[in-house]
Design brief:
The chain is mainly β. The chain contains no helices and 22 strands. The chain has 3 domains: 19-103, Immunoglobulin-like (Sandwich), CATH 2.60.40.10; 108-188, Immunoglobulins (Immunoglobulin-like), CATH 2.60.40; 193-275, Sandwich (Immunoglobulin-like).
């Protein structure tokens, strides 16, 4: 539209309103779920305009209802999660479409026990259930004083369980092919080994502060690191059986460095640092 100088014009402009996506969240029995966390992300193949948030969040109210407003037109992936419920995903929903009913599946439990090398219960282990074949979901729990654990809110499927304990006393334990609803799963934690020794300077004295890292030879096991004490002594924990290369390096510049190869479980190891 063009308007000449001094002329007045009236025009109506239609501004495109954002789209709405609403619905209700229910449990497996059809009851509304309050406080469910509902998230929208662009579905594969849909690229929103530049400046659009990467995701949108909402929470269901006492009637289970949720609502997103001012959404760009397009297709979205919706996920809903709530305490004690298995996560549910709707891979492709359209903004501005009919109201949705998001229903959680009946939740299952994976139960079992964490034990040490001698069968003794291990408390405080973190047990994670990771879906096999990828995808979202999963869950976690900590073992109790008797070593038992219960991972709740699991969806139907097959999982890999991984148990870890902080502190370096035990190695991780893993169980594959565990179906949701399984009971009596036993995860036995192998005893971890350590390397003990002392770091010395070029003159045999105690060097300044620095850092050590034990790296497995041949790719087996996990690397472990730490510093040494004021008298140069050190203990590297959490090692699996095998041979390791230990590198030591001072924090000063230029640093002093030293390297040795040892078997896990070795004691009395001396690492002599030299200028490089």
């Amino acid at each position: 539209m063009s308007v000449g100088e001094g002329a007045a014009a009236n025009a109506d402009f239609a501004l495109e309103a954002g789209r709405v996506l609403a619905g209700v969240v229910r449990d497996a029995g059809g009851r509304p779920v309050q406080g469910a966390r509902v998230t929208l992300r662009p579905a594969p193949g849909f690229t929103p305009a530049e400046g659009t948030p990467r995701y949108f969040n909402a929470s269901s109210d006492g009637s289970g209802a949720f609502r997103f407003s001012s959404l760009p037109e397009g297709t979205w992936t919706l996920t809903a999660a709530a305490d004690g419920q298995p996560q549910v995903t709707l891979p492709s929903v359209a903004s501005g479409g009919a109201p949705l009913e998001v229903r959680f599946e009946a939740s299952l439990v994976i139960a079992g026990r964490i034990a040490g090398p001698g069968g003794e219960p291990v408390a405080g282990a973190l047990v994670r259930a990771n879906p096999e074949g990828g995808g979202g979901g999963g869950g976690s729990a900590r073992s109790g004083p008797d070593g038992s654990f219960h991972i709740k809110g699991m969806a139907q499927g097959v999982y890999t369980l991984v148990a870890t304990v902080p502190g370096g006393e035990f190695l991780r334990a893993e169980a594959r092919g565990v179906a949701a609803g399984a009971e009596g799963v036993l995860l036995s934690l192998p005893k971890a080994l350590s390397v003990q020794g002392r770091v010395v300077g070029p003159d045999g004295g105690t060097p300044g502060k620095g850092f050590l890292r034990a790296t497995p030879k041949g790719g087996e096991g996990e690397s472990q690191g730490g510093g040494w004490n004021d008298d140069g002594t050190f203990t590297l924990q959490g090692l699996a059986p095998g041979r390791y290369e230990i590198r030591a390096r001072t924090a000063e510049s230029p640093p002093l460095q030293g390297t040795v190869e040892v078997e896990a479980g070795a004691e009395g190891v001396e690492i002599r640092l030299q200028a490089r």
